[in-house]
Specification:
Pfam families (chain C): BPD_transp_2 (PF02653)
Number of strands of chain C: 2
Family (chain C): Belongs to the binding-protein-dependent transport system permease family. LivHM subfamily.
Structural class of chain C: mainly alpha
Organism (chain C): Azospirillum oleiclasticum
CATH class of the largest domain in chain B: Alpha Beta
CATH architecture of the largest domain in chain B: 3-Layer(aba) Sandwich
Oligomer: heterotrimer
Shape of chain B: globular
Membrane topology (chain C): Multi-pass membrane protein
Helix content of chain C: over 70%
Structural class of chain B: alpha/beta
Shape of chain C: globular
Keywords (chain C): Amino-acid transport, Cell membrane, Membrane, Transmembrane, Transmembrane helix, Transport
Order of helices and strands of chain C: HHHHEEHHHHHHH
Number of helices of chain B: 13
Chains: A mainly alpha, B alpha/beta, C mainly alpha
Helix content of chain B: 40-55%
């Protein structure tokens, strides 16, 4: 067995066994932490599709996560107040709400992508940021849905006639299942003709154009697909934290997603998963470790994180996954 | 992940899991508050106030040896919810306290209520939790947001101002603030402006104020926004020409230390002031100053009182934490020596009925700019939302 | 609005614009010449403000404190360039973004450890504390001073770039990096100089902002985002573009905040108009940026 394949199997095993181990240790909290990692991994994978494979550095990807989360939040508000939305009864059915979140995020991505993709390089980074900021201020101004306060959800979306999703372990496995399914689909996508054109355009856009590929249309399609997956991640995030707010769209969240992708290894599918896990575990445990060394030291943990990031970028050039998987094929 | 890292990760998990301690003879409190970022000053003051009370009480609350688990919510609601889950499920805390911001408290409430864990808010007092969404597991030991604004509204009304200019950040707490003010101020409004949350420069708005020629200005700007606004209000030549009013949040010690003389003479409102003349308050202010080399803010006083409240309630139950109904009753009727003096009790919605005082920003004998009590705006004042709360 | 008010808002927009220009000039030069995206540029702004406050405590003289703070901020910039960033010049932009994001975390936490979490105090010098009468308009003296210094620095910068040998190299570097290297110029020295210059300008902006704004951790990021908006609108790498972008953003932001809420009140009820007008004013510059980039993807004055 090759080293990357072995590492993937270990990751899958850890993912499958985590709730079992947590239950055995009597520590249900780690199931929640695991869910959070899976959700951010999903968002990071979606960003990597455009960033790592398509060379589109979006600094506004959190906006699509936020849009997906808001679909859940808005429907929750209407369902709990028994008010119709656009003339329809608000549903709490996960099988409708989650795809809807992905669809709305994709819809939002069409005009944003059309305009943003006129630019490349740093202007592209900034124009995606600009759109995310606009959506951020829009959500902050939505007083009916909490404005800056956001919406606290009292329960998760449901499966038809089943309260199963309310259980943390069930929700964990559902999230894991979605992540694995998306990874498999993404794996096929990047190896398809579509994916090859995308990667070709990243390396040499002019050449792909000369070969007669409508590159911008390909890039737009990738942008919209990534937004849809991010919207789905947003719906899961809302269900995992039972909270929706404009903070999900803040530019620093887009920054976090970029950190996850690059830290894990961009242009790979396993990389963003590793990156999400690494960043969230650091966030969880470094302050506690520092507090163990000296009480109160933990609040200064970012003075450690900063240089660690810098050194990682400097020395682990292919990200953590590159280091785990060994030489790149 | 290689086998080696897997083992390392597993042992790290085991290390942090720790033994599940029983509640016998010990108390574990989760302190979730803002310790980093622009809002950190408020969270750190609450934490330091709480710790000072714990120190004054010899490290025990209600006779139980007390451990405080601290965590930084980074002023992000979803992080706060994550920490709440961790505190409840992993650290198995008996109580949660420390929260600064209303939106974080609202986000955390479902989790805490589902886990039947008491939430003693030393600051955040959103109207939702005071009214229809009031909760048996929530207590606020500070105030309901609106009451502080109402006090200034009444004062401005009594002073006979007729044309007041109103400003607040564009978010729900800002809108509630101006609504609270207008509940008691009935005169004319020269302008009502909502600015971007976190705005730094108010030059454009100050020019509009000048053009509107109001006879008074009321602003709600907590933290860094307040510092910017007050400095620029002074520099624009408005100070001295147009009287400025605000709630205590806009003119408390955290802000005064950074604006200095620019805020002198401003009337504001709070349930507490550093100059209050009680033995408990004098000890609190003196010891806080000695320990941290700065004057305490109202947030620090609230953190201090939160610890006193918990102490009194647990003493009343004889150290028993599992009987939630008994503990709730004990919180509700707890008698403690609050640094804000006499007159504090809980309403049916678990928010305070208390006095709200008028304060004026003055220069102390040693040159520090601070607040001085100049009057009482409300005696035994309850918030306007308690009637919507179904709890008895 | 009467003429006096319009004049005052125009001055406010200009003043905000020159402040943004001081930030944008350094950022755009560093990008144009070294091809480096430096997110930590905002940290120099913060460092400048904190150092000025600290030096005022030592010298008890604002101007002296400001000069010392600017010089020291330039040195801090030099140190950062030597120790951390030099290895990143030939790296991917994404790597630079991440590494300098790490630097932001480091500087913010360091400032918090040294000066504490609570914003600190910095007043304008006594001579600039009040207002100045400009043809009947009472305008804050400190803002007028900022405007004056900003314009003066812009002129000096133009002289430096247009009239000196170093300036010639900077211009050449911005359009064709490889050519300058081929000329046998000590590129390392040139890079260090430009970086220190940029840091110094950001420090100057911070030092001047200190008396007007809160001196606090995180102040750098807020202006950093706006600075990026400015250089992208202006065209990355172009100092002329930075000036145009800065003035445009300053004006649009100020006038948006001054007029949009009133405009919305014409066709919405007051409560809705106040909220919507505020939100629209916050979005104005981002809409501006999206518009400019949609029409001119490389900005108004693309370099090279």
């Amino acid at each position: 067995m090759t080293r990357p394949r072995f590492a993937l199997l270990v990751m899958l095993a850890v993912g499958l066994l985590l709730p079992v181990v947590a239950a055995w240790m009597g520590e249900p909290f780690y199931v929640r932490l695991g869910t959070r990692i899976l959700v951010f991994a999903l968002a990071a994978v979606s960003l990597d599709l455009i960033l790592g494979y398509g060379g589109m550095v979006s600094f506004g990807h959190a906006a699509f996560v936020g849009v997906g989360a808001y679909v859940v939040g808005v429907l929750f508000v209407h369902a709990s107040e028994y008010t119709p939305i656009l003339g329809l009864t608000a549903t709490q059915n996960a099988l409708i709400v989650w795809p809807l979140a992905a669809a709305v995020a994709a819809l939002a991505a069409v005009p944003i992508g059309l305009i943003s993709l006129r630019t490349t390089g740093v202007p592209f980074i900034m124009i995606t940021l600009a759109f995310a900021q606009m959506l951020f201020y829009l959500m902050t101004g939505l007083k009916a849905y909490g404005g800056d306060d956001g919406v606290a959800l009292w329960n998760r979306n449901e499966l038809p006639d089943s309260p199963a999703l309310a259980d943390n372990t069930v929700f964990y496995y559902v999230t894991l299942g979605i992540l694995v399914a998306v990874l498999v689909a993404a794996h096929r996508m990047v190896r398809s003709r579509f994916g090859r054109v995308l990667r070709g355009a990243k390396d040499n856009e002019r050449r792909m154009r000369a070969l007669g590929f409508p590159v911008t249309r390909y890039k737009l399609a990738a942008f919209v697909i990534a937004a849809a997956i991010a919207g789905l991640a947003g719906a899961l995030l809302a269900n995992a934290t039972l909270f929706v707010g404009p903070q999900y769209l803040h530019w620093s969240r887009s920054g976090d997603l970029i950190v996850m992708v690059v830290l894990g290894g961009m242009g790979t599918l396993a990389g963003p998963v590793v990156g999400a896990a690494a960043l969230l575990l650091l966030e969880e445990f470094v302050p506690e470790l520092m507090n163990l060394a000296k009480p109160g030291l933990g609040e200064h943990w970012k003075i450690v994180l900063g240089p660690v990031l810098l050194l990682l970028v400097l020395y682990a050039r292919r990200g953590l996954w590159g280091w785990i998987a060994g030489s790149r094929r | 992940m290689t086998a080696r890292t897997l083992i390392a990760a597993a042992s790290a998990l085991a290390l942090f899991a720790g033994p599940a301690l029983g509640a016998d003879g010990s108390l574990k409190i989760g302190m979730i508050t803002t310790l980093s970022g622009p809002g950190a000053g408020l969270g750190i003051d609450i934490r330091d106030g709480f710790q000072l009370a714990l120190q004054h009480l010899g490290g025990s609350l209600g006779g139980l040896k007390t451990e405080v688990v601290e965590a930084d919510d980074q002023q992000k609601p979803d992080v706060a919810v994550g920490l709440t889950n961790r505190m409840v499920e992993r650290d198995r805390v008996d109580l949660v306290t420390g929260v600064v911001w209303s939106n974080l408290a609202l986000a955390m409430m479902p989790t805490l209520a589902n886990a039947k864990t008491f939430f003693i808010s030393p600051n955040a007092g959103p109207s939702q939790l005071a009214g229809a969404q009031c909760n048996p597991y929530f207590f606020n030991v500070a105030w309901q947001n609106d009451t502080i604004h109402e006090a200034v509204g009444q004062h401005v009304q009594e002073r006979g101002f007729k044309k007041v200019y109103l400003m607040a950040p564009n978010y729900p707490a800002g809108k509630d603030a101006l609504a609270g003010f207008r509940r008691y101020y009935k005169g004319g409004v020269a302008g009502e402006v909502y600015t971007q949350v976190g705005q730094l420069d108010y030059a454009a708005e100050l020019a509009q104020i000048k053009a509107a020629q109001p006879d008074a200005v009321y602003v709600f700007y907590p933290g860094g926004m307040g510092i910017n606004f007050i400095k620029q209000f002074d520099q624009a030549g408005l100070k001295g020409n147009v009287p400025l009013f605000g709630p205590g949040f806009s003119f408390d010690q955290d802000i005064l230390a950074a604006v200095g003389d620019a805020a002198l003479g401003v009337r504001n409102s709070a349930q507490w002031s550093p100059d209050m003349d009680s033995a408990a308050n004098k000890r609190f202010v003196a010891d806080f100053k000695a320990k941290h080399n700065r004057l305490p803010s109202m947030y620090a006083s609230q953190g201090y009182d939160a610890a006193l409240l918990i102490d009194a309630a647990i003493k009343a139950t004889g150290g028993k934490l599992d009987d939630k109904d008994a503990l709730r009753a004990a919180f509700k009727t707890a008698k403690f020596d609050s640094v804000r003096g006499e007159g504090f009790r809980f309403n049916n919605n678990h928010y305070p009925i208390q006095n709200v005082y008028l304060r004026e920003v003055v220069k102390g004998a040693d040159g520090t700019v601070t607040n001085k009590t100049v009057g009482t705006a409300f005696t035994n004042h309850a918030d306007a939302f308690a009637k919507d709360c179904a709890m008895k | 609005m009467d003429t006096l008010l319009i004049a005052e808002q125009a001055l406010n927009g200009l003043q905000f614009g020159v402040m943004l220009f001081l930030m944008a000039a350094g950022l755009t030069l560093v990008f144009g010449i070294m091809d480096l995206i430096n997110l930590a540029h905002g940290s120099f702004y913060m460092v400048g403000a904190y150092l000025t406050a600290a030096f005022v405590g030592v010298f008890d003289h604002f101007l002296l404190a400001l000069l010392a703070a600017v010089a020291l901020t330039a040195l801090v910039g030099l140190a950062v360039e030597w120790t951390a960033l030099r290895s990143f010049y030939r790296r991917d932009h994404l790597d630079q973004v991440l590494a300098t994001f790490g630097l932001i975390l480091f500087f913010n936490e360091l400032a918090r450890i040294i000066w504490g979490p609570v914003p600190i105090f910095l007043n304008p010098p006594a001579a600039l504390a009040g207002t100045v009468n400009l043809f009947g308009l009472q305008y804050p003296a400190i803002r007028l001073a900022i405007l004056g210094v900003g314009v003066a620095v812009a002129l000096l910068l133009w002289l430096l770039i247009a009239r000196t040998r170093v300036g010639m190299l900077i211009r050449a570097g911005a359009t064709n990096r490889e050519m300058v290297m081929a000329l046998g110029v000590d590129v390392r020295l040139l890079f260090s100089l430009v970086f220190a210059l940029g840091a110094g300008l950001a420090g100057l902006a911070g030092a001047m902002a200190g008396p007007v704004l809160a001196v606090q951790v995180g102040m750098g990021e807020q202006i950093l985002i706006l600075t990026f908006v400015v250089i992208v609108i202006g065209g990355i790498g172009s100092v002329r573009g930075a000036l145009a972008g800065a003035l445009l953003v300053g004006m649009v932001d100020t006038l948006g905040r001054a007029t949009l809420p009133a405009l919305f009140r014409l066709f919405l009820d007051p409560a809705a108009a106040n909220g919507a007008g505020g939100a629209a004013a916050s979005m104005a510059i981002y809409v501006l940026m999206a518009l400019v980039l949609a029409i001119r993807p490389r900005g108004l004055f693309p370099a090279g």
